[in-house]
Amino acid sequence: MSELPKEEYLKKCTSACAGCSSTLCLRYVLKAAGPDTVLVVPACCTSVLQGIYPTTAMNVPVYNVAFAAAAACASGMSTAFSATGKKTNVIAYAGDGGTVDIGIQALSGALERGTNFLYICYDNEAYGNTGMQRSGATPIGARTTTTPGGKLETKKDIDRIVAAHEPPYMATACSAYPQDLYKKVKKALSIQGPKFIHILAPCPPGWRYPTEKTVELGKLAVRTGVWMLYEREAGKLTINGISKAAMKKPLPLEEYLSAQGRFKGISVEAIREMQLTLERNQRRLRNEEEGLC
Amino acid sequence: MFEIRIHSRGGQGGVTAAKLLAQAAFNDHKYATAAPFYGAERRGAPVVSFVRISDEPIKVYSQIRSPDLVVVLDSSVMDVIDVLNGIKPDGTVLINSAHAVTMDGHTTHHVDLTGIALSLGLVVAGSPILNTPVLGALAKLGIVSQESARKAIRGTFTDERNVKAAEQAYAEVTV
Amino acid sequence: MRERLALSTPGEGAAGKTGSWRVFRPVVDKERCNTCGLCGMYCPDGVISEDLTIDLEFCKGCGVCANECPKKAITMEREER
Amino acid sequence: MLTIATGNKAVASAAREAQPDVVAAYPITPQTEIVEQIANYVTDGSMRSQYIPVESEHSAMAACIGASVTGARTFTATSSHGLLYMHEMLHWAAASRLPIVMANVNRALGPGWNTWAEHSDAFSQRDTGWLQVYVATVQEAYDATLMAFRIAEHHDVLLPVMVNLDGFSLSHITQSLKTVKLGDFIPPIDLPHRIDTTHPVGYGPMTGPDQYFKFRWDIERSMRDAVKVIADVESDFASRFGRQYGQTEEYRCEDADVVLISMGTLGKEAEMAIDILRDEGIRAGGMRLRWFRPFPKLDLAGREVVVIDRDYSFGFGGVLAHAIRSTCRTDLYSVIAGLGGQEVTYDDIAEFVRSRKIGTEFWFGVTPDV
User: Fold this and answer.
1) Measured distance CA(A139)–CA(B154) in Å, rounded
2) Interface confidence (ipTM) of the complex
3) Which Pfam family, any one, appears in the UniProt record (chain C) (predicted)?
């Protein structure tokens, strides 16, 4: 831990829920990025948790922007900074709704244009800020306020969509592994062009688990293989050690599901579908890493 | 104010001809506007564009309904459009044709713009270029000066054959 | 300058004294603590300082520190108000 | 330099002269020529702006916002559905107090698909906090675009400006154009609240019911202050470059018994109609409204008023007619004409005035008893 900077760019204290893992992520994102950084934040939990005018908990400039507009706004910002010779980091920090749903067009455009920025999606698998409605990133079987009987469809695979744009760097991360996240943000910011990091960020009220389990839940997601940690740099995929270990000896999926109230009453079919999806995903990643596809 | 209506088909350069004519009139120190009428047409459909030339500033934006001169770049549009519609009683016609054409009592000048373009090899994507040679014919009719026409063409196109085509049309148009 | 748009200035307490949110407070058993620092690393709100003291003015009482402490040196005790 | 240009090229040429740092734009008929021309300028090196070829108008305005808040001079252009697709971001730009300049080529809205002139696109954005000016000639399109930068960036304004020109009937017509050498007419941009990472602040955070209204009031205050800024900039422009503009352009209005009010190219065509009416012994005058936001104070006391609206607010009436009716406390003859490029000639306009029935509304081309 000694290598992590001691500076905190989140002042005490945000209005995030107790046990909020996305706030935990933001601490490490900003530690990695340092003070010459601007955050572009679309409508999401992070728009609210900064605090209410006239004081903010964020000690870097934050430009709050409309729901669908984060990547496009960051495009303009990054272009303007480079036009004036500034090296300021531009980081879009967006939830899953603002990324996989309403913001996907702007994200795709910014990636395609080669925008020099880092886009981070912190994924709590629903519209958290408005009280947990389903998003495209909600997993199958999960109850949300708009899927009271459990979601019927599987989670949208935004990573494969992003990968199709062939950005120079993309990675997944999880709030339960803040040092790993820190390293990935550091590396991303050292690379020119569009970068994408997708963080699984468990949410106590949304996923319905006790606040103290926030880190535990993240670890469970990784150890069951529901969430895979990897990096893809210049087209080369590396599965991180912890996910490799999880692939060899995964914890049973039920351990992850039963720890969360949102999966209460999930059907056997939905569990099977989730199991098949994660196995397919692992197979695909393993094949890619081994150069088989 | 002198009002000119140009009939052509999409892709034949009627719109560019209008712009070139306005540029030439402007070179003559006149006021001029060129206004294409954009319909929902595509390539090959009849297209109309308007040029107004005046010694005073031009305030009219609506279409030309009673032209002093009608220019027909493609005589086949006459099968589908009444090109003489609204023409002034003493209005004249300039038509791209190898042969003399009579037009309902209106003085009609003709010149084989297509032949000129083909003989000079002025063909783009299979279509002979008509918008530069027509400027020569219009200069002969006194709408703009020959020098201004030449200048307008050179300001837009680098291929000198365009100027040559205009000069040939100047020489060949019937008056 | 006129107040043309809402520009917030960084400062502590942007969301108030969030310590009042707590139902349970973390209590550290200094005897058990081996100063590994995981509590501070995992604290979502960063209210655990370098010397591992917990800022109770802002600690929301989530209990992540207690849950993650490998030495079980932190217990969550009911706030008495 | 004296040259000829289309309305679109004039706008692009003015944008080049103003040297924006960033242009983010998406093509749409009939604005496309502006984007193409700017792309050409950037490619041939005559314009040193960064051009961001965004994937939508929503993103165009979002990118302009992102660029502008860093303190960069920013320009874009759109039309019709593109403008409507931006709608949310137009509010965002104005309330972020960003001096973005945008050309909007006025075009009708679908369905049915119609690419010709109408003012409904921009009028439906009238409450977004953008200043709006409407031009009638190629020269004016150029001049207004230049002035827009200085007005928007003035510290008493700091609001975005929309320069409106009629689709096809101005965007695509060729007229003479005098370009200028700007000199110091537009001072370097100095955005007081630009992003400074050494002094971090949060832009547009949650703002409670006890605070929010203050910022809305300041937009209104700046709109009011803009009236003087506009006048100053227009008069400085006149003294440097010899062309004078105002909130309205009046034609034979001094002794007029009946004033015909219109906007855009119809306002120029109307001058021909006024001449015809005067020849007939009708003392008519023309008034072309240039600035729609901030809306000017018009003195129409003791005159009959005829208003042409190239727009409509369904279930209500002509937007311009209503604005004049309410701000001037006068009744008028409201004509709805030119929708979707409907051909309106000076003869038609003269007839509107001749057959005026104050207190009624007339839809041109539709049976009068509708």
Assistant:
1) 66
2) 0.95
3) Fer4
